[in-house]
UniProtKB/TrEMBL annotation:
Single Gene Ontology MF annotation: hydrolase activity
Signal peptide: 1-29
Organism: Streptomyces narbonensis
Pfam families (alphabetical): CBM_5_12, Glyco_hydro_19
Cross-referenced SUPFAM superfamilies: Carbohydrate binding domain (SSF51055), Lysozyme-like (SSF53955)
Alphabetical keyword list: Disulfide bond, Hydrolase, Plant defense, Signal
Stated name of the protein: Glycoside hydrolase family 19 protein
Limits of the Chitin-binding type-3 domain: 34-76
Length: 296
């Protein structure tokens, strides 16, 4: 009956000179097209653009490379005006893109939601361990510390250039092949020192010892280094930040893992409060309680 009605409407429209589009019975709504590709624009890894009816994802820095002409662009499929753009992120991350944008309204365009979700595959236990509340608390804790370290995901590299030559430990057997001043702080937790670049690169399968600049060029790699520290390094503390959140030790222990007595135990109460306040804001956005043991 419905098909006969559609056919009749189509015939009537044709008779009066009107075009009619008959919806497919099986076609699904394509994701909405993002902003159109511009040959004069610079795209960094994680940024997206639409071209020739498809959405495209930039894997790394590019300019004037037409989507589809080189492997810098990944084809995300046909796009249109449908509602597919509101589908849940396939990564299953507990923070939506809208919530991420709410948390970081003034972030540097380098730090993208796509870069963050792409990095999650490196540490599948992150924000996916424990109850839904614990998952969201861990995500909020990571992003709160990241926000504090980077001025709201604004700074990509350490601002005090005078420190740059100090991060080369030549006592390491591999030395500093990228140069004396190459291992300054980069990324969401400001990865620094040649031995940290070596350890993070080895863990992630990326040669960061010889090419530390990738951390400031690729949003996914930048986030991977932050997640590497969060999930695997005790730092000055007694446990990783990941373990602190999933085992109930509390947000204060994540501060120990990142900056230890430089902030904790009276080292710098204002900095601790800044981190705690941001964490409380982010848990509120995610709709979960902040939990106990907020301070260190």
């Amino acid at each position: 009956m419905l098909r006969r009605l559609i056919t009749l409407i189509a015939a009537l429209c044709t008779a009066v000179g009107l075009a009619v589009l008959v919806p497919s019975a099986t076609a699904g709504a394509a994701p909405a097209c993002v902003g159109a590709w511009n040959s004069g624009s610079v795209y960094t890894g994680g940024m997206t653009a639409s071209y020739n009816g498809h959405n495209w994802y930039a894997k790394w820095w590019t300019q004037n490379e037409r989507p589809g002409s080189s492997d810098v662009w990944r084809d995300e499929g046909v796009c249109g005006t449908g509602g597919g753009g509101t589908d849940p992120d396939p990564s299953g991350f507990v923070v939506s893109e809208a919530q991420f944008n709410q948390m970081f309204p003034n972030r540097n365009p380098f730090y993208t939601y796509a870069g963050l979700t792409a990095a999650l595959t490196s540490y599948p236990g992150f924000a996916k361990t424990g109850s839904d509340t614990v998952k969201k608390q861990e995500a909020a804790a990571f992003l709160a510390n990241v926000s504090h370290e980077t001025g709201g995901l604004y700074y990509i590299v350490e601002q005090n250039t005078a420190n740059y030559p100090h991060y080369c430990d030549r006592n390491q057997p591999y030395g500093c092949p990228a140069g004396q001043a190459a291992y300054y702080g980069r990324g969401p937790i400001q990865l620094s020192w040649n031995f940290n670049y070596k350890a993070a690169g080895d863990a992630l399968g990326i040669d960061l010892l010889n090419n530390p600049w990738r951390v400031e060029q690729d949003p996914a790699v930048a986030m991977m280094t932050g997640l590497w520290y969060w999930n695997t390094q005790n730092g000055p503390g007694t446990m990783t930040a990941h373990n602190a959140m999933v085992n109930g030790a509390g947000f204060g222990q994540t501060i120990w893992a990142i900056n230890g007595s430089l902030e904790c135990n009276g080292g710098n109460p204002a900095q601790v409060q800044s981190r705690v306040t941001k964490y409380q804001q982010f848990t509120q956005i995610l709709g979960v309680p902040a939990g106990a043991n907020l301070y260190c």
